[in-house]
Amino acid sequence: QQQVKQSPQSLIVQKGGISIINCAYENTAFDYFPWYQQFPGKGPALLIAIRPDVSEKKEGRFTISFNKSAKQFSLHIMDSQPGDSATYFCAATFLGNQFYFGTGTSLTVIP
Amino acid sequence: GAGVSQSPRYKVAKRGQDVALRCDPISGHVSLFWYQQALGQGPEFLTYFQNEAQLDKSGLPSDRFFAERPEGSVSTLKIQRTQQEDSAVYLCASSPRYLAGTDYTGELFFGEGSRLTVL
After folding, report:
1. What does the pLDDT look like over B39-70, one tens digit per residue?
2. Who among B55, B108, B111 is closest to A99 (CB)?
């Protein structure tokens, strides 16, 4: 059973546009929700993360919106740039003992 | 070193061969994880160490997979009698503190992975 469901699978956005990636989870015990960014041939790198007691977290152009009642969270990339082109993974964990990753979203930002 | 180092970066094995994949975590990192990433998929948990203790190995797909971290630093993932379905990128990640508790950051530092191709 997929613990974290991610959509869309791929996304194409014009430079300067907003990229939105959505995730849904099942386990209400999850207490930490990170987003990872992965470039080809590299390992994932932490981008931004949120805990369920907060509805939104913003770091620069990246914002996580969290809806606890709907068990959903999303990543918004404002003013998307070609350098943001990468694969993005949402994840969830309970006490950090095991991280469950989504299936990934391939983002392409067109100049 | 500056980051998590994995070797070899690429490994081609014939079906039935044994392989060993090495992970050098960031110095001082207590926790170490192994993940398997199939093409076009997200990382799937394999196993987790806290220092030298293997606390969770529930993700290892079969008894052909074995991981160890004997001195609480370098870890090795061994796959015996490799099968074609074992072809994937094997990612190692370390974290600087005990992850249980309320003060963890949850940040995993990943290596670049070892790409295993089984022919």
Report:
1. 989 999 999 999 999 999 999 999 999 999 99
2. B108
pLDDT in tens, A35-80: 999 999 899 999 999 998 899 999 999 999 999 999 999 999 999 9
Give a yes or no: residue A111 inside a domain: no
Contact A107, A36 (CB under 8 A): no
Contact partners, residue A100, CB within 8 Å, separation at least 6: A3, A4, A25, A30, A91, A92, A93, B45
CB contact under 8 A, B107 and A6: no
Cβ neighbours of B93 in A, within 8 Å: 43
CATH of the domain at B17: 2.60.40.10
Interface residue A69 vs chain B (CB under 8 A): no
- Rounded (5°) CA angle A80-A85-A87: 120
- Total number of domains constituting chain B: 1
Residue A86 lies in a domain: yes
Give the range of the structural domain holding residue A25, as residue numbers without chain letter. 4-106
